[in-house]
Amino acid sequence: MTKYLISFPSAAMVFPEEDLQAVSDAAHAVVQEAKDAGVWVFGGGIDESVPPVVVDGDGTVRPGTYPQTAQLEGGYSVLELPSYDAALEWAAKIAVACRCPQEVRAFQYDPAS
Q: How far is CA 53 from CA 8, 48, 56, 61, 63, in A?
């Protein structure tokens, strides 16, 4: 089976403040559904209050990030699924719960993971 990354940027979640609890409840329900189905690997939101750092090969830690990932934020789910179509189905469920479109990407197969 293939692992899929289903994600969205923080700015994509636009809904009235009074809907926050309903969105949270819906998102948690989809996560539980994925866990119950045995397809959930990992998920969560990037804590945007913690600034990114880069750790070099010699252990040096420096503030910042790769230029192409400067806007890396939002929510992420990793699911292990039998097909791309199944990934699209789960992305649709997450899109409904989070009230925003989801991006779907497949991880390359790695027998060690």
A: 21, 12, 10, 7, 4
